[in-house]
Amino acid sequence: IATWKGDSEAATKIRGIDKANYDATHKDYSESIDALQRATAVLKKQSHDRKQASFAQVSALQTMSLIPPEAKKTLDLFLAQVSQEPEGLEVSAPEASGYEFQSHGVIEMLEKL
Length: 113
Description:
- It is a single chain.
- By secondary structure, the protein is mostly helical.
- It has four helices and two strands; from the N terminus they run αβααβα.
- It has helices at about 1-45, 55-60, 70-80, 105-110; strands spanning about 50, 95-100.
- The chain is rod-shaped, with a radius of gyration of 32 Å.
- The mean pLDDT is about 80.
């Protein structure tokens, strides 16, 4: 009977160690899954294309005191060029995005994890 009690106590001690290891691993996995879900949510919120700077934003640079005079002259020339209407067969290019979101593959990979 003493041997059985010793075996029972040893098995109980081993189960306690195994449970502590399981709890630590479970907590780590749970935190990792939560972090992946939050990262996916952040990426999905940012999954849209950004427009290029508008001419109003570019023309606002002319009034900034940090811009050197040479750069202001260049901006004036650029804005004067843009305001001209296309003549004859000149065709303007389609509007492009300033930044196109390219992380759709990352989102898909995170969702598969």
